[in-house]
């Protein structure tokens, strides 16, 4: 089992819309490092859903439903997508300010590479974020 965090602007694609639709093709990623992370995702991996820009908070947990495949929104087959399904919402969203204040999260990719849209999480980072949100 691996753990991940994906970012989405809630005005573009929100957690509420994701839950309503029940499944999403996570496409449109055009950063090589994020693409490489998508390629490593496997069905059953857990993914934290982060509302970026306006909210800056983790709002829920998703699961990888389908491993990486060529992104249908791209003209070039080197770009990848995965399918995600919602698992559950956080009882309390975990804000970026909370993450910055938590010593166990000082090395999290969200703080070190703030523009990266798909990033891995260590087990201890995932567990710390879960504890903050539930």
From TrEMBL:
PANTHER family registered for this protein in UniProt: THYMOCYTE NUCLEAR PROTEIN 1
Natural source organism: Pontibacter indicus
Transmembrane segments: none
Superkingdom of the source species: Bacteria
Full protein name: Predicted RNA-binding protein, contains PUA-like domain
InterPro entries: 5hmC_binding, EVE_domain, PUA-like_sf, THYN1-like_EVE
Domain EVE: from-to ranges: 2-131
